[in-house]
Amino acid sequence: MLIIGIAGGTGCGKTTVVNNILNNINTESVIVISQDNYYRDNEHLPFEERSKVNFDHPRSIDFELLVEHIKELRKGNSIEQPVYSFITHSRTKDTILTHPKDVIIVEGILVLTDAELRDLFDVKIFVHADSDERLIRRIRRDIQERGRDLDEVLNRYQKTLKPMHQQFIEPSKNYADIIIPNMKKKNEVAIKLLSSVIKERLNPNT
């Protein structure tokens, strides 16, 4: 089993990189696990308090459960991933039944900040993008997909997202084996290289 961690600041294009890799290898032997499903359940808090939680700080992630799930998959066991709602800021009652595959991609802004999780990765990737570009993408996503208004998005960016990026996410780049610049054609070589590594692991005799 090959386990790959892909990190990078919010709006850097991690999902696009993952999708490009999947398109290149064209296989059903890969599963993608998103850090976003592993935010701690804050259902016990009133909604106003839940909405104030700093979701860009490592302590907001249930790394214990994520590590446990990766270890179970590595053993060949299936898991039930939690499902998190960014509208209610809590876990839903649903779960995602996930079966082990030959390749596991774990993606999220903070996945390289946790030492125990990092140790499970065979390959560690950091996707780099310009801060202004990341902010623009974050605004679009939060307004269109998460029902937030512009003032809320900008306020969160100034108070939590930017300082957390500088304190935790950007420094985690130092743990990466590969840094992918998300600048259109400039990341094609890195994606092809990573895709080749995955293909070789899936088909070692070819």
Give descriptors for this structure:
alpha/beta; two-stranded antiparallel sheet; 7 strands; 40% helix
**Proportion of residues in β-strands:** 15-25%
Outline the biggest β-sheet.
5 strands, parallel
**H/E series, N to C?**
EHEHHEEEHEHHEH
* 3D shape: globular
In which order are the strands of the major sheet placed? 2-5-1-6-7
Secondary structure tally, helices: 7
Protein topology:
Elements: E1 2-7, H1 14-25, E2 30-34, H2 47-50, H3 63-74, E3 79-85, E4 90-98, E5 103-107, H4 115-118, E6 123-128, H5 131-146, H6 150-169, E7 178-181, H7 188-202
Parallel strand pairs: 1-5, 1-6, 2-5, 6-7
Antiparallel strand pairs: 3-4
Explain this structure.
The protein has 206 residues and is α/β, with parallel strands linked by helices. The protein contains seven helices and seven strands; from the N terminus they run E-H-E-H-H-E-E-E-H-E-H-H-E-H. The two termini are 17 Å apart. The mean pLDDT is 85.
What is this structure, in a nutshell?
By secondary structure, the chain is α/β, with parallel strands linked by helices.
